[in-house]
């Protein structure tokens, strides 16, 4: 089928859609002008829902940015969260912040430009940044899960992975692996990513290197996700066996804190799976679904945005320390507005009668300040 006939067939689908699973495979024969023509036609027909997509997508990004900033502020200012064990969590929140504040807003702008202005041939180069940050999120989550695995399943070995050097080594590897993956095709003459119909999203170039495409997806996303899933399965099996062997006795306070953090991170991982996986599953099982039901493209993207946007909310709902920490930041900000002189004092405020810190504050700092979780 030549380009003009295929483009005409695709445009006819806008009026009379029908199922053709092989259609998406043939899109690589379209020229860029025909692809842009097809993209513009879809924008024209689905313009109202596209505007709704921009509004809701922008709102998700804004809310996600604010909540991730709030969560970071809680980790750095709330005493029960200020310990070495929170460094990996803070770094993970930072990556979510980058997604909500930069990656997803850029994707909204890039998609809009296909309708409102002309983009150059190399406009999909920004996808390197998109995938670098997204894969960094996955690998950082992987190292967080491995950290929890050692803390709970192999507690006697935990000092090896909880040191400052080990912590920053995990963080470095969490960025280094995605960086190498995304720099590997840099010298190729064929573009790695290209705009695709129906709405111009930047995806793998079908004419590119298939080995890179498979390696990029497996090593960048699916391998670390598998490790995360197996780590949490091992954690909960170990905890169940330990409780059974102990006749239902309670865990030690340190182990309970570690398990509480693991539950929070596991809930975050489940949320990540629920929001990230719909898009690859849909396109793998139904290659032409975005052409037949274009609205599903926006639904899948909203879910992707929610992955980073609601992560800090999950922390607050599943872990009381993070919930109290975020409330602490909000209360402190409110106090600073109403009483700047008091708000400027270091926390906790000295007891006016004795000149000493309140007993609760001292207990918190003693119990949590130097805890490695």
Automatic annotation (TrEMBL):
SUPFAM superfamilies the UniProt entry points to: Family A G protein-coupled receptor-like
Mitochondrion as UniProt keyword: no
Official protein name in the record: G-protein coupled receptors family 1 profile domain-containing protein
Molecular function terms, GO-annotated: G protein-coupled receptor activity
Keywords, in A-Z order: Cell membrane, G-protein coupled receptor, Membrane, Receptor, Transducer, Transmembrane, Transmembrane helix
Transmembrane annotation, as ranges: 50-76, 88-106, 126-146, 158-181, 217-239, 260-278, 298-317
InterPro entries assigned: GPCR_Rhodpsn, GPCR_Rhodpsn_7TM
One GO CC annotation: plasma membrane
Highest taxon above the source species: Eukaryota
G-protein coupled receptors family 1 profile domain span: 67-315
Compartment annotation: Cell membrane
Species for this entry: Hypsibius exemplaris
Broad class of the protein's primary localization: membrane
Pfam families cross-referenced by the UniProt entry: 7tm_1 (PF00001)
PANTHER family: B2 BRADYKININ RECEPTOR/ANGIOTENSIN II RECEPTOR (PTHR24228), G-PROTEIN COUPLED RECEPTORS FAMILY 1 PROFILE DOMAIN-CONTAINING PROTEIN (PTHR24228:SF74)
Keyword set includes Phosphoprotein: no
Membrane topology: Multi-pass membrane protein
Cited CDD domains: 7tm_classA_rhodopsin-like
């Amino acid at each position: 089928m030549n380009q003009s006939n295929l483009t005409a067939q695709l445009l006819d689908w806008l009026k009379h859609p029908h199922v053709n699973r092989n259609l998406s495979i043939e899109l690589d024969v379209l020229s860029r002008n025909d692809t842009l023509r097809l993209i513009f036609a879809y924008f024209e027909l689905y313009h109202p829902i596209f505007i709704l997509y921009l509004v809701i997508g922008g709102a998700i990004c804004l809310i996600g940015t604010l909540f991730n900033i709030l969560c970071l502020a809680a980790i750095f200012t709330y005493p029960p969260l200020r310990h070495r064990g929170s460094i990996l969590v803070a770094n993970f929140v930072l990556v979510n912040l980058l997604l909500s504040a930069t990656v997803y807003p850029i994707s909204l702008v890039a998609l809009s430009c296909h309708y409102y202005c002309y983009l150059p041939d190399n406009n999909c180069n920004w996808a390197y940044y998109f995938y670098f940050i997204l894969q960094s999120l996955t690998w950082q989550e992987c190292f967080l899960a491995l950290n929890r695995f050692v803390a709970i399943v192999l507690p006697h070995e935990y000092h090896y992975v909880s040191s400052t050097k080990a912590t920053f080594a995990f963080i470095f590897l969490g960025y280094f692996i995605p960086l190498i993956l995304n720099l590997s095709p840099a010298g190729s003459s064929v573009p790695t990513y290209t705009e695709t119909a129906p709405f111009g999203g930047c995806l793998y170039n079908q004419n590119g290197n298939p080995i890179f495409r498979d390696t990029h997806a497996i090593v960048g996303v699916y391998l670390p996700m598998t490790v995360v899933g197996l780590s949490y399965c091992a954690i909960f099996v170990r905890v169940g066996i330990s409780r059974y062997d102990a006749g239902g006795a309670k865990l030690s306070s340190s182990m309970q804190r570690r398990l509480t953090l693991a539950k929070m991170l596991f809930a975050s991982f489940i949320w990540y799976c629920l929001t990230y996986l719909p898009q690859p599953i849909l396109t793998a099982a139904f290659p032409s679904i975005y052409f037949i039901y274009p609205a599903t493209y926006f639904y899948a993207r909203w879910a992707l945005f929610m992955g980073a946007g609601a992560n800090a909310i999950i922390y607050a709902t599943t872990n009381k320390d993070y919930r109290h920490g975020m409330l602490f930041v909000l209360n402190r900000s409110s106090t600073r507005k109403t009483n700047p002189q008091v708000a400027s004092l270091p926390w906790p405020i000295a007891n006016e009668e004795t000149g000493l810190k309140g007993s609760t504050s001292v207990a918190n700092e003693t119990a949590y300040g130097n805890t490695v979780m």
